[in-house]
Design a protein that fits this description.
Blueprint lengths: L1 E7 L12 E6 L4 E5 L5 H15 L15 E3 L5 H4 L2 H12 L4 E4 L1 H16 L1 E3 L7 H9 L10 H4 L5 E3 L2 H4 L1 E4 L5 E3 L2 E7 L7 E7 L7 E3 L7 H7 L4 E5 L8 H4 L4 H5 L1 E4 L20 E4 L1
Length: 289
Amino acid sequence: MLRLHITGVGDAFTERYHNASFCIEEPQSGIRLQIDCPPAFPRVLADYRRGRREGSATAPGHDLGIDNIDALLLTHLHGDHCGGTEAYLYMRRFLLGRKPTLLGAPEVLDALWPTRLAGGMERLLQSVPTWDAAALHERSQRTPGEPTDDRDLLRDPGGPIHALGLLDYCERQDLLPGVTRLGPLRIERRFTRHHIPTTAIRVSLDGRARPLFAYSADTAFDPDLIDWLSVADLVIHETNYGTHTPLSSLLLLPPELRARMRLIHYPDALSPADCPIACLHEGQLVELP
């Protein structure tokens, strides 16, 4: 069986929710694979834990955190889907000392470091000058000198600089055509109709012929993609405005498929309680036997 911990359901412009994301858990192996990593990711997980603990202190997902999410899959590089990756990788390196596994299509991951992460993560200042009380007192007795050019600090910040790359922070596992394995998980990917390279996924377990669930990721309405997704027991599909999938298009699908569908990445204006297709909710636990 699989558990899906729903950590966010909103779109890029939401003022009500966290951005769309969820964590896959296979309880027998203990594997937890996060699907997309929205901004303020530590807060996203803290809010999920708080909601789970309201029901029971030991409810599944009560402990969901960066320390036990050892793998992250990025569907694409829009900020609402990858904006928390820097914090996730920093916490894994500096607080935990354990590299996670980063998964994604090469067309997605190849651009992650140069376009999203390098500006903030490629230079590590390994040490800085330290000051004790005696040194501060001695400094206070000196006659102030001429102002210095503060740009000198860019050339010499006071300690050695270490250059880093993506693989200093994580292991990389590419999603290629066919099946990618992560423990007992079998992951397939398919590109969607979106502004930048974006992958839908299907997830199966060893010994199961049919995928337990499929996720559209961001996409325009695409009947071919929906055919690919629909072989799964559960279909998680986005809906939104613009070059996304209109709810009106999803309502044209067969009733049997709509009954197996759950919506995510929906706009704030959509009322989940009144939606004719069931919506996922933040803090929800979905169990797939």
